[in-house]
Amino acid sequence: MVKRGRSATRPKPQDDDVNANGFSAGDHFETKDKSFRITAKRMVYPADAHDGATVSPLETEPSRISFARTSILGVGCFGVVFSARVRKVDGENARTRPAAGQRGDSENLALKIVLVKRRESRELSLLKRLNHPNVVRLRYFFFSSHRYEFVDDDDEEDAPRRVANELCLSLFFDRLPSTVFDEITNGRLSHEDSVAYAAQMFRALEYLHGGHSVCHLDIKPSNLLVDRDKRELRLCDFGNAIVIEDGAGGGGGGSSRKNSYSSYVCSRFYRAPELLLGAESYGFAIDIWSGGCVLAEMIAGDPVFKGEEIGMDQLVEIICVLGTITEGEMETMGAVLPSLDDRVLASRIFGTPRDRLRSKFEGGIADPLFDLICDIFEYIPQRRPSAGVAAQRLEDISLQIKD
């Protein structure tokens, strides 16, 4: 008998756990390489869209597809991502169906499955608005139910089982061969690669910030998909993304005291100092800091701020490089945690902030690129460059490298 609590494991879904398609959400996890046929919603993008198109996509339309998951690509707090083989089967019958072992016109996509509370989610709502060459493109999506039985922790051993239903959202995306994390781990990034990828990352952020007022809030190497052969990058995973209300973004990516958000966002090594200090009023500068951390990591080969814990230890790592945060800076950042004792850090800080930061790049770094990273690593959010400015500077640096 399964107890429902923190230590309980979710039981296998029941045989009658299906949606209108005859598909069980639990089938994703119980079967591999088994093919399913379902009716999904297909995203309809403009017919004249080209690589530089940034217009929003059109409406969705029903589409009959066949898919089979082949491997797990990643597991997160809110869902699982699979590699999936997908084929359109609209109008297909037994006579036209490919024989066993034949893939027909199938394509490899990424399949993300998340639990949702209703038949719409913030992530899906955002993805249906986005169409940019450096943002991952949503191809199909559908909902399915997940039914399971449980007993509460405080129930008697012979208590009757209760039944619960969860709603799952399945999202199919274009899949790229690698991620920036993979490229860093395998040591395959040159300075030219790093600059090219970073420029595309900031162009994606420029589109999100300026075109849709979207703050991603989880910029990190594993959320940056790349095609090394084409030197192409696309930003993915909008599970934490939010729409910043009017006036909250600030001219250079600052914040507004009128809007409060959770400070518990972004992965540890890429979390801006204002978040570590508990700020709940912030803007697009959060993404700019994270993007700067990714750029620096691509050049250095390792995170430049590598704290062992997500709280004060991570903040100390930043301060040991960039220097102590003044009370005025903390006030501007919207800090709610108490200030640090300077005496705790005094014995660990030597040289100037620029010298300490430059020491992170043992293989060397060009001055224009280092200057940009320094400009991004500003404590005061409003002083950080916008995504568009950062992208333009990187594109100029790319031209200098080629010359």
Can you offer a commentary on this structure?
The protein has helices at 27-30, 122-127, 180-185, 191-212, 273-276, 285-300, 312-322, 327-333, 342-346, 353-358, 367-376, 387-402, and strands spanning 3-4, 36-43, 60-75, 79-88, 107-116, 138-152, 162-174, 178-179, 214-215, 224-227, 232-235, 242-243. The chain is of the alpha+beta class and 403 residues long. It folds into two domains: 3-174, Phosphorylase Kinase, domain 1, CATH 3.30.200; 178-402, Transferase(Phosphotransferase), domain 1. Strands 2-3-4-5-7-6 form a six-stranded antiparallel beta barrel. The longest helix has 22 residues, at 191-212. The chain is globular and about 65 Å long. The chain starts with a strand and ends with a helix. The relative contact order is 0.11.
Name the quaternary structure.
single chain
Overall number of strands: 12
Tell me roughly what share of residues is in helical segments: 25-40%
> What would you report as the Rg, rounded to the nearest angstrom?
24 Å
Shape: globular
Biggest sheet strand order reads 2-3-4-5-7-6
Structural class given helices, strands, pairing? alpha+beta
Task: State mean pLDDT (0 to 100 scale).
Answer: 80
How is the CATH topology of the largest domain named?
Answer: Transferase(Phosphotransferase), domain 1
How many distinct helices? 12
Poorly predicted residue ranges: 1-22, 98-102, 250-258
Q: What would CATH call the homologous superfamily of the largest domain?
A: Transferase(Phosphotransferase) domain 1
The secondary-structure element order is: EHEEEEHEEEHHEEEEHHHHHHHH
CATH class designation of the largest domain? Mainly Alpha
Query: Beta-strand percentage?
Result: 15-25%
Count of the domains: 2
Examine the secondary-structure arrangement and name the CATH architecture of the largest domain: Orthogonal Bundle
End-to-end distance, in Å? 69 Å
Major sheet summary line: 6 strands, antiparallel, barrel
